[in-house]
Amino acid sequence: MELGLKACVARQIVAETIPDRTVLTRFLTHKVAELVGLAGLGQHLEVRRRDRNFDTRWSVVTEWSEESRYEMIDSALATAMHDAVEHPDHGVMKWLSQYW
């Protein structure tokens, strides 16, 4: 998901230009909310979150953090995370992929 958001940001960068240093620094974050803003998807996300099925999955995905990748998780959480990202109708990546 983080890489998907970064792909949305990268799409906005004009080829053969050097982006503003502030943008580059913000691009290095792992924080989902900051990347949503940097990608310019805040309003799109607000609209999409009106769908409860998507909103529930978005909430699961945003529980991830850079530190959590080193934690052991149980199979229920792993299954919920997979569904949140990959669900064919309400998955976060399906929504996000239309913007990269």
Give the gist of this structure:
It contains 7 helices and no strands. With 100 residues, the protein is mostly helical.
Describe the structure.
With 100 residues, this protein is mainly alpha-helical. The protein has one domain (2-97). It contains seven helices and no strands. The chain has helices at 2-11, 21-27, 32-38, 42-48, 52-61, 75-86, 92-97. Helix 1 (2-11) packs parallel to helix 3 (32-38) and helix 5 (52-61) packs across helix 6 (75-86). The chain starts with a helix and ends with a helix.
The poorly predicted ranges are: none
What is the tally of beta strands? 0
Q: Which oligomeric state applies?
A: single chain
Head-to-tail CA distance between termini: 12 Å
The whole-number mean of residue pLDDT values reads: 91
As a percent range, the share of strand residues is under 5%
Total domain count:
1
Shape: globular
Structural class of the helices, strands and pairings?
Answer: mainly alpha
The SSE string, one letter per element, is HHHHHHH
Distinct helical segment count: 7
- Let me know the largest β-sheet: none
Radius of gyration: 14 Å
The helical percent reads 55-70%
